[in-house]
């Protein structure tokens, strides 16, 4: 939208084809980008193309010549305000205020949405509680949340919406492109149930864009470094479940940042689909890293005694190892069971590379790197098997991802990012269309697109989700 | 504490006002107009293939330029019309945007 609105501002009349159910998102994006109500027509999600196009093709062309209305020529000003206090009353009244719901008339929105919370009660942010929370950082309350270091790989979409990633520049929270002060982060920390000692990680998460991502929700955050122990995060059994205050409230705060700082309203300011449920902040288990394996912070250039947060994919695309923990143990102890039979190690004690069990299908319906959440025991088995470093695993995954072009062409997303197969295939330097059908291409751009987080505990199960993001880690220590 | 009256701080982010602009003036006529149809990368071929075929058939008086966007994984991917070509277009149609 920033690009499209710029063209309209330049003086080129435009008309766009969108879908009806996304019209409210379109309106909001137009205002945010300074050209309200850019003309559009609605395509159909269901009607076959020629029949669909015939119903609106004349409206499309008419939108380019139909005279502008007075409001289209001179749109009203956008009035905004930012009062420091939002409510005055008793705590009980404040509970009601912050949990208030609003009805937003919009296609598919059939129920109200909470204006300031995730639907659950919050701790009302009195001035006293916020002041207490602010003791957890040396940064001043009125300080704007800015990048503490350079982040050159935020991604085009976030760059286009205003965040430069340049040290000292403000962080803009998506989708509504808003800014925040340290005090607002403390306010959200109070609301979420955080403690003052959580402020450095809350601010690091805010620097990383909060729970907003590019406006459609940002997955989860991994905490790496001694700080996670300082604030008593759980990195053992139930790492994603309820019960640990730090894991849960910090994750919740990221989500409340999306609602309050980003202005997320599903189907209105954000065209997401399923939504992103509240995720715990996930601490890495440093103590359980196998010998030779780096922590996630070291992978991003931090020192071992430093702490950072790293945005990771975690949501509805998360999958788990589809074998029973007992089957895993039998594989490693004796080579018995189905996994051993598939791997051809029947009766041979481990360590075995358990990833072999599902590797052939890992990219069957999607491409790209994977982020694995490994229990210490399962990481240790990989190390004992022969992966002396995490990079060895990343390299192995990359090599295993190769498939023929014939197979690759049955995947959907390459239609998009190969530009209908007209682009250049990176490993050969030749156009995709000129390559033989049996030419082998990787489903993963490079080994480092994969990522391993060692955490959790208990029965032998692993999780994996989308690959490593282009962005790097965010220092927690900078916000102490 | 429940009976006391307190002031509660505002968690909502700081919205910078954005200057609102009017739409670009419309075309006086389609006759001879240079209109670019920018086809979004990988998006909705079911709509855009027939559209690219029907537009020149139905509006032959227009000077059509059908362009195809680059992959979405690059900055160019989101560009409907390269800035260097703005002077060559009297109007723009872009789809499917989302």
In words, what does this structure look like?
The complex is a heterodimer of chains A (480) and B (98). By secondary structure, chain A is of the alpha+beta class. Helix content of chain A is 31%, strand content 12%. Chain A has helices at 2-10, 23-32, 49-65, 70-73, 91-98, 127-134, 156-160, 182-192, 199-207, 227-230, 245-260, 296-299, 325-334, 338-343, 376-385, 390-400, 405-408, 414-417, and strands spanning 14-19, 40-43, 85-89, 101-102, 113-114, 178-179, 220-224, 282-283, 308-312, 319-320, 370-374, 402-404, 424-425, 430-431, 440-442, 451-454, 463-466, 474-475. In chain A, strands 8-7-9-18 form a four-stranded mixed β-sheet, with helices on one face. A four-stranded mixed β-sheet of chain A has the order 10-17-11-16. In chain A, strands 1-2 form a two-stranded parallel ribbon. In chain A, a hairpin with a 4-residue loop joins strand 13 and strand 14. Chain A starts with a helix and ends in a 5-residue tail after the last strand. Chain B is built from one helix and five strands; from the N terminus they run E-E-E-H-E-E. With 98 residues, chain B is of the alpha/beta class. The relative contact order of chain B is 0.24. The N and C termini of chain B lie far apart (50 Å). Chain B has a three-stranded parallel β-sheet with strand order 4-3-5, covered by helices on one side. Chain B is elongated. The chains are: A alpha+beta (480), B alpha/beta (98). Chains A and B meet through helix 1, strand 1, helix 2, helix 3 and strand 3 of A and strand 1, strand 2, helix 1 and strand 5 of B.
